[in-house]
Design brief:
Oligomer: homotetramer
Order of helices and strands of chain A: HHHHHHHHHH
Number of strands of chain A: 0
Helix content of chain A: over 70%
Radius of gyration of chain A: 20 Å
Amino acid sequence: MPKNIIEELIDQNDHLTEKQRLILEAAVESFAEKGYAGTSTSEIAKKAGVAEGTIFRHYKTKKDLLLSIVAPVMTKLIAPFIIKDLNKVLNQDFERVEDFLRAMIINRAEFLNANIPLFKILIQELPFQPDLQKQLKEQIALKIYEKTKEITLHYQKNGQLLEMPPYRIVRMTATSIFGFLLGRYILFPEFDWNDEEEIEATIQFIMYGLARKGEAPEQA
Amino acid sequence: MPKNIIEELIDQNDHLTEKQRLILEAAVESFAEKGYAGTSTSEIAKKAGVAEGTIFRHYKTKKDLLLSIVAPVMTKLIAPFIIKDLNKVLNQDFERVEDFLRAMIINRAEFLNANIPLFKILIQELPFQPDLQKQLKEQIALKIYEKTKEITLHYQKNGQLLEMPPYRIVRMTATSIFGFLLGRYILFPEFDWNDEEEIEATIQFIMYGLARKGEAPEQA
Amino acid sequence: MPKNIIEELIDQNDHLTEKQRLILEAAVESFAEKGYAGTSTSEIAKKAGVAEGTIFRHYKTKKDLLLSIVAPVMTKLIAPFIIKDLNKVLNQDFERVEDFLRAMIINRAEFLNANIPLFKILIQELPFQPDLQKQLKEQIALKIYEKTKEITLHYQKNGQLLEMPPYRIVRMTATSIFGFLLGRYILFPEFDWNDEEEIEATIQFIMYGLARKGEAPEQA
Amino acid sequence: MPKNIIEELIDQNDHLTEKQRLILEAAVESFAEKGYAGTSTSEIAKKAGVAEGTIFRHYKTKKDLLLSIVAPVMTKLIAPFIIKDLNKVLNQDFERVEDFLRAMIINRAEFLNANIPLFKILIQELPFQPDLQKQLKEQIALKIYEKTKEITLHYQKNGQLLEMPPYRIVRMTATSIFGFLLGRYILFPEFDWNDEEEIEATIQFIMYGLARKGEAPEQA
DNA sequence: AATGAATGAGGATTCATTCAT
DNA sequence: AATGAATGAATCCTCATTCAT
């Protein structure tokens, strides 16, 4: 079960040659490091150990190469964030919101950690690729909204979550989780993180906020 | 009282020519739209209605032009943290954390709203500009952390905030605020936002989390 | 047996493309005519019948192109001093100084005549290319001086040359030979020269200024 | 009695402003150091401490500036080499060739020493300025030939010089003197020269190659 | 399929020159 | 006379892309 999307891409596409694999890997590394516009195809060719022409035999243009990398990320990285784990929740695997959140954070953290370069590329190029923006907004965001509404309603019905528009609950939860992951893996990866403690604190925060009150429920 | 940094730049630097203003404005627009590496100087010149050589009379290199735009954002970004807000907190101008947060969110929202293109540029170029990274990490982030630590300790002492490492409180608060601002101004600006309600909900979330409990305090 | 250095370059480097040959020839012609700084790469490309980019595929920079032309001149310039002529002198192939000088003049005249454009380039660019200056002074000049010192000492020992610091004998001989070659091939090539007579006169001039003869007047 | 040609230029042209002087001096320095094509007008302006536009108020083009420097050198530096000192000789100030040569060498050495930058410029630019070449060949060279013929004939008549075409005697003499000056002031100025000894040796070299003596071996 | 030499449009930057002040 | 901001052509060089091998 490969977590790395590039490996998945290669595994799933049997027709991919060795050279194509090398090109893809080199491109991911370079794009993540210097950005799409800041990376030259000759650089990629050199890093991949192939001739310049070989790249264009497999990818019609440089942008084609980028899209062949980024597009799968969109569907593989973001969609599952919501969809795959959602089923477990709906199947009652997690009675409490806390448990759902914990599973989600750990799962996504592993996933992000295995795909950091891809993530960087996605974030960097989104603003300049209207195609991707559209795809992200219309397909992914829509799915998220529909599915999370179900989750939210589920936990709201059994009294675990406040009555609040689902989009807002999703935003706040996602924001808090992503804020943690961003600091953990992108901004300060060199910091000495105590992952378990930090994850529990994040869950606590999402659930019970920051206020200290005498009558507050059990806090960590 | 202009909130827009480019306007401030022009107002404060009397020696800035009309041409320089045009160049700066064109550069901001282009960089925000297509990224630094994706924008050519000839493009900027054309958009500014200026000869290409004129750009290089005022900014030695293209990167110089970028830095003259981005650097001020970094310092202006943290100005209120350092100068105004800490004193207000210590002077009891904000007795309750909620009030402090509300002021902060509104203040930063205004700032962000007035400088969206600059922000996009800053975020896009940070990964590729080690200069900026260093400046941000060593100077800006450190100052923010020191000041927010003081604020946090202040509210922890008078019992309004949980006992928790300040960096974590700062992260969670910042994450939640930035998550709101991101959705509001960058990702879905066209959505019909009820700003006041959303801000109050964000404050509530930071303070009291998402859990519904019988003994929970008054919720919005 | 090509005397022309460019031809040698091409003959010796089998990997040199047709295009590279054209570029080299065009560059030599242009540099000799208008100087290095006065020649544009687009000009060279046009004259060579090649795309401008092709130049930079073979020579990383314009200066690289210059050096690839000039550097060989420096080494070929001294080849006969080092390799052939010294041995001939020591082996008594040239019993008399006159014979050695005659051989040297003819040899260098042929060489110069076959490489006039290269020579012009070398002389023109020396003052502005510290690399070349250093190379010339430290490597070439030193080797020439060492070898010529040996030759001088040889002829001084057998009584054919005056007792005088070798550097001075070298200077005066070189000066006289180079003075002839300069007039003959660079300054007044269109003049109707009687080569044999001029060479003999030059030898005579050198000799009967340097020759030690009993009847000579007071010498310094 | 200024020996420096630039000073002379300024002294003789009363209409030259302070700024023009500064420009001329800066241009001479820069051209000598980096060549005409390698020097930018803005560089000259900065070194002269004037505005860029000021240069073009006084010299219509960059080449105009060069010619205003180089042209006088041609007439002042080379013509006097022959003409001025010639009169002394013809006036019998120097009975012996040796004395004439000594006076000539010393005079020209001083002159060259005072005008090294100008000299470098002249030599560097001659190959690329057909105007100057023509001027040099037709005017200067012609005068040289006429005048030196007189000198040569004079000393040939009174038996001090060999019977030989005057151009050849001039070439060999000039070559030897210039060879010394070149080494002394241009190539190896940092070397510890014993000027007097070197000059005498040069004279001896010239003389006892050219002198007609009963005991001399067969001459051409 | 793979190569890599060749291309030429386009990139950032420089520069001689102009002109309004 | 002097300035220096402005110009835009030209410079060196890079790069995505093509194509003969």
